[in-house]
Amino acid sequence: MPTVERDVPSGPTTTSEEFSARIFGASGPAAGSGLELAPFRGVRFDPAVVGDLASVTTPPYDLIDDAERRRLLSEGGHNFVRLILPGQPGGGYREAGETLRRWLAEGVLTVDAEPALYVYEAADRHTVRQRGLVGAVGLRAESEGVILPHEDVYPGPVQDRLALMSEADANLEPIFLIHQGGGDAARIVDETAEAAPLMEFPASDGLVHRLWRITDRPLLDRIAADLRGRQALIADGHHRYATYRTLQARHHRSGDGDGPWDHGLALLVDATRYPPRLGAIHRVLPGLPPQRALEQAKSVMQVAALPGSLPDALRALADVSDRPAFLLGGGDGLYLLTDPDPERLAAAMPADRSARWRRLDTAVLDHLLLAGVWGVPENESSVEVVHDDPAAALARARRFGGSAVILNPMRVEDVLAVAGGGERVPRKSTSFGPKPRMGMVFRLLTPPT
């Protein structure tokens, strides 16, 4: 199920170099050549053909809900949703590939003549919210310690993106990586952003999006040298990275050897200069009536009715962020769930997981509530997700007569400790942001000669 993201506060933002130091520490990759971000021939919309770039670019595919997808498709034109979410959900892959090739032939999309790294920026009126490099990241085995995942994935979205990527023969959307920088690459990025941008436009998210291009070989060599030996954490795009690795393995099994499938499109952000925001991902359970959810939750957690407004309830939830706690809604009221029964919790949690992992809100939700007392299957149709916006989650639950579970944002230190211990947090636990605008530049696996 596509997710929905709204521009609302979603937890504290780390603002010092401690963020990246806590992610990566002092150690580098265990093996291999380290982090590689290669230039590529970018594909971009031609403003002379499509007009306003805000009208054709989009949020990431999994932040576009069904209603918004249908609206964008019904308007015709060249919106990027026709490539990343064509036709019906779970289909339309051939249609996307045909559309991409037609737009290239018609000049709707143009391919840059020479390989480049691209500087991407999203800024509001006062602050650069995000700035980083878009390039082709070298894919590495997890054991090499170069690209660090922190979250599990569902097989369905990986299969979906693999089918789309194969038909389009392209990496359409960059994954979002963060790394400890502050070196030569960071200086080049900031110096590049002092010049006039290649493209610039305000979008409906309230941000101005800009893009620059770096083609100068000495600058590219300096960036490569600075990144060598560094590590990157996947902030967003675990399913797309798993898709990159699946496509790579498919080609290697077929005897195709090295090729463009050994890289995947990525936005690499220096967390030292531009630390990300970490928000919550809420759950919507359309098949679980709220009264039943409430009564069954009482058997394993303390439940307190919250008579105030949603902001009041969110403050009450934030007050207990040091332990597993949830807001349950979807009916007429909101309820605070706290203090899971220790015996029921111990029986529900996997024994082979660390104590820290077993205390994570999403782990308690998945194993004690969803599987344990509510009997909700762990799949995309039974458990929908909404990024950041609790009001949207509650509204969606009410629309379907279901329940919504509102969570606190995961703490950065928990994400880092779990990943550092060789574990992954449960699926859809973290919402790093701000996420990049899609359709500004992407990568063909087989660019035209």
Structural features, described:
It is a single chain. The protein has 449 residues and is α+β, with helices and mostly antiparallel strands. The protein has two domains: 18-277 and 433-444, no CATH class; 281-408, no CATH class. Helices cover 33% and strands 22% of the residues. The protein is built from 16 helices and 21 strands. It has helices spanning 18-24, 47-50, 66-74, 81-84, 93-106, 155-168, 184-192, 217-227, 238-253, 290-297, 310-319, 342-348, 355-359, 361-373, 390-399, 412-420; strands at residues 37-38, 42-45, 109-111, 117-123, 128-138, 147-148, 170-171, 175-179, 199-202, 208-214, 232-236, 263-270, 277-279, 281-285, 302-306, 325-329, 334-338, 384-387, 403-406, 431-433, 442-444. Strands 1, 4, 5, 6, 8, 9, 10, 11 and 12 form a nine-stranded mixed sheet that branches. Strands 15-17-16-19-14-18 form a six-stranded antiparallel sheet, with helices on both faces.
Count of separate DSSP helical elements? 16
Stretches with pLDDT under 50, minimum 5 residues:
1-32
Total count of strands: 21
How far do the termini sit from each other?
Answer: 38 Å
Judging from the principal axes of the Cα atoms, what is the shape? Answer: globular
How many domains?
2
- Largest sheet report: 9 strands, mixed
Class from helix and strand fractions: alpha+beta
Query: What value does the Rg take, in angstroms?
Result: 22 Å
**Content of β-strand:** 15-25%
Helix content: 25-40%
InterPro entries: UCP033563
Protein name: DUF1015 domain-containing protein
Pfam family, one: DUF1015
Organism: Actinomadura logoneensis
